[in-house]
């Protein structure tokens, strides 16, 4: 009798018709996690990404049809969908998670995944970048505030009416917009919409390093939340969120900020002619202790204490324990 090989965990994703990004970004991440992704698209009567398009699709029970298609695909391939989700952020927050679940019994949707990711990061204040028309961008911000209790301290949107325009925005331009959207008050930068190509390998890590804080994108949060809902905890290289302890990641940002502050204060005080030698010695001791702590944490190299360039690449290393 042959050994039974267990089937891989399968994520079922209901897409909108214009979504092409998940088809490119989903499989590489799924392969790293050792899982499979089944996708199907619902039908819309318009290319416009707006509330009216979504509400009409709901009235035609397009989500229910999509869920049935996924179930049939799973049966035909000898698998089952372990979790089911709606992979469109604005569709999700326009309908609300309750209505999404009424039609497809979804475990999650992209709006809910945004909230869960921010909770995992213990964020309080966020900066929000979206590609949407103003109406939907405002709705995304309201969802984060009313349903998650997060304060949106900064928000920019590109006012793109269709997904083909959104998916055509180069990652480098997304990164530049994210930098402009960021605020010193924000704990996390949120990049909304699955149409953005913001989950390319190492893109998130590079952007987090550039910003000095965590970044949450719709596709990244969606795959992260679906995988964990299915019991898959494997780390994803280059994905930003979910690689290490998220609490530690925020601690890293605070540590880097403290480092910069100490260096600035030290430079200013060194110019003070009335500063006593004992004060100078104390300041040097504090700075040295901080640098040593960062070396022990693995944030900077031992021989890099002069330039203080972080090597964390957007995430914290496992041995960091503040």
UniProtKB/TrEMBL annotation:
Residues 302-322 are annotated as: Disordered. Transmembrane segments: none annotated. It comes from the Eukaryota. InterPro entries: Iso_Racemase_Enz_sf (IPR053714), MaiA/AMDase (IPR026286). Signal peptide: none annotated. Pfam families: Amdase. PANTHER family: BLR3294 PROTEIN. This is Arylmalonate decarboxylase (AMDase). It comes from Cladocopium goreaui. The lineage of its organism: Eukaryota, Sar, Alveolata, Dinophyceae, Suessiales.
């Amino acid at each position: 009798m042959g050994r039974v090989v267990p089937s891989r965990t399968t994520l079922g994703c209901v897409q909108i018709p214009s979504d092409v990004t998940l088809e490119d970004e989903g499989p590489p991440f799924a392969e790293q996690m050792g899982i499979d992704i089944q996708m199907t698209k619902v039908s819309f009567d318009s290319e416009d990404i707006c509330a009216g398009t979504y509400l009409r699709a709901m009235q035609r029970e397009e989500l229910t049809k999509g869920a049935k298609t996924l179930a049939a695909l799973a049966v035909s391939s000898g698998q089952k969908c372990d979790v089911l989700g709606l992979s469109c952020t604005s569709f999700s927050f326009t309908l609300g998670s309750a209505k999404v679940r009424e039609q497809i019994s979804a475990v999650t949707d992209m709006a809910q995944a945004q909230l869960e990711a921010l909770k995992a990061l213990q964020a309080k204040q966020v900066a929000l970048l979206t590609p949407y028309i103003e109406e939907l961008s405002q709705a995304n911000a309201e969802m984060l505030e009313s349903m998650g209790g997060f304060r949106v301290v900064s928000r920019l949107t590109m006012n793109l009416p269709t997904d083909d325009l959104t998916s055509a925005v180069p990652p480098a331009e997304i990164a530049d917009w994210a930098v402009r959207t960021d605020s010193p008050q924000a704990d996390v930068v949120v990049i909304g919409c699955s149409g953005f190509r913001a989950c390319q390998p190492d893109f998130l890590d590079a952007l987090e390093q550039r910003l000095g804080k965590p970044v949450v994108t719709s596709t990244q949060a969606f795959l992260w939340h679906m995988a964990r809902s299915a019991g898959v905890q494997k780390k994803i290289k280059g994905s930003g969120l979910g690689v290490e302890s998220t609490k530690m990641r925020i601690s890293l940002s605070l540590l880097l900020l403290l480092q910069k502050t100490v260096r600035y204060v030290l430079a200013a005080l060194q110019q003070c002619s009335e500063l006593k030698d004992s004060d100078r010695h104390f300041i040097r001791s504090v700075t040295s202790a901080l640098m040593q702590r960062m070396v022990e944490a693995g944030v900077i190299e031992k021989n890099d204490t002069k330039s203080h360039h972080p090597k964390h690449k957007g995430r914290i290393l496992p041995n960091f324990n503040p």
